[in-house]
Amino acid sequence: MIIGIDTGGTYTDAVLFDEAAGEVASWAKSPTTPGDLSIGVGNAVRGLNLSPRQLERIRSVNLSTTLATNALVEERFRPVCLFLIGYDDKWKDFEPGERGKLGAERIVFIRGGHTFYGEEREPLDEGAIATTLERGGEGSVEAFAVSSLYGVRNPDHELRARAAIEKRTSLPVVCGHELASDLNAVARAATSALNAGLVPVIRELLESVRRVLEAAGLKGIPLMIMKGDGTLVHADSLWSRPIETILSGPAASVVGARWLARGSFEDEEAGTYVVDMGGTTTDLAFLRGSAPRLDEKGAQVARYRTMVKAVEIRTIGLGGDSAVRVISSRKIGIGPERFEPLSSLGGRFPETCVRKNTLPLFVYRLPKEATGLSPEETRLLESIGDEPVLFDEILEVNRSRITVEKLLHTLWHRGFICFSGFTPTDALRVLGGAPEGGGTPLAYEAAQELSRVMKTQNAEAFAKEVVEETQRMLAGLVACDALCRDRILEPPVGNLMESPLIRRLVADEEPGRRVALRANIPDRVVGIGAPIGAYWKKITAKLGADCTVPKLAHVASAVGVAISAPLLRKEILITPVPEKNLFRLYLSTGVEDFDTPDEAIERAGLAFTEQMLEAAKIAGIAKPQIVVSRRDETVRIDGRHEYYVKTTLLFEAKGAPEG
Length: 659
Description:
The protein is of the alpha/beta class. It contains 19 helices and 31 strands. It has a 6-stranded mixed sheet, with helices on both faces. Strands 11, 12, 13, 18, 25 and 26 form a 6-stranded mixed sheet that branches. Helix 5 (126-134) packs parallel to helix 6 and helix 9 runs antiparallel to helix 14 (440-454). The protein starts with a strand and ends with a strand.
């Protein structure tokens, strides 16, 4: 038997999968607890009500998570210092703090780097690294990242820089060449910085899960985690590479949705959209047959393009707990930030209320030790008690609104506080479309206040507009992807609902329109995720598609990770060096040259197979089978001459969890 756990921003789900029977034996769902993840994980695992006999039969605990994805969507990754080695003056436009480009709090340029063929271009200035750290380079950062020009061709400078940093600090240090094998200096630097910022986030999760498993009598059972490309590896192997878990939850949900919806459609090989709505994000994937496609360019999450190969998924910051705000008397905005629903907060704090003419937004402190904060941040955090306080009340006792908002954003960004405000979940509860929470009266008060701001008739009218806008955004996500596949639209960079075509396509009928637009999606659509059922009927009508919400759709990600098997993938590259009339093999230990491509391939097979066996052991794969595939790339010039460009060898290790 296998336990599958999916930790999202709102709920943590667990399932017990019986391999012999091929079915889910039990499932449980518990709210995720950001201050201490072990509470939510523990409640979910205990909810499975495992018998002594079942405990004896468990051979693996498989984990998926959306925490890394959510951190990128909400820009809540931890502060990072990024060392860029060999990045010349042309890169200096990437100034510190430009998170939209590199995702780093601080950027330090160091002399060094290699050439396209992996040869040292300039000696590494290790003295500059030491000087930076001795002058307080740590500052308020929680991790370091190192990216060297052409580091994927020769990682020597990155490895030496990491060693120099680790001599002077105990903070995590990650290198770009360990995360990506393709050339793209800027994207690799961003991937390195984002990865470093996610290290504390994922380590907290893994430590929490291990504490829960030990308490449940499952100490020593292999803990596996799903990567964004749908492969399953031992959690220890991702201790310093958490960015590989971005889209982990969505990858698991695609696998789970396909398995849960089996037999629901006549043509099993037809195209399928999977719409996974969670508390923080909604993910869209397209399958042809049973296998999802990989995004070879690297996973795109919100505005961040990484070099991590992952399942091709479109993610937007829309979930049941997305922040709702009034933009104008005719327009509301939803997401991408996540709030705790007021109906949930009011249940925990019954005396909480909304004052008239006050923004219905609360702030409360999470149970986390306050470290690495400035004096101003510390004073503000200490002024926030254990019970929620209105945002406007915090402003009343502070002079500068801009300063307070900036400090609060930093505290929220680093996981010290949480916001609670009106969400789509609250709207459903106001309308009676979701089970009432203990704080539904608080949500109703907030809806009344927001209806006054938006100039709608009453609380119910405002809540209805929130639900309908959520439905339009969900339908728009599918319609937008279909139009992009038909090459009618370019993939939008920002809010997809800003497109007049998308908005018109999913809008409700309005009298007086000269042109009526209606979607007719030929592909089937599978909806999963806890909130999806409340919106599905209207979505189906807007898309004109064959849609279904399968049984256990609310725990699809936990099902998907439970039924997955361990798999590890790694690539190795061979390129010609024309001026030397030889062929170069790029290994993690350095470069090696050969007279022919076949000699390089033979050497790669010998050297890298051993490395793969060791990597498979670290990844927790027992008795791995190594499969190697070869892909040659050529280019034709003038339609006549064909030139050899490179050879990529893909090594795959398959097996069962080691335990």
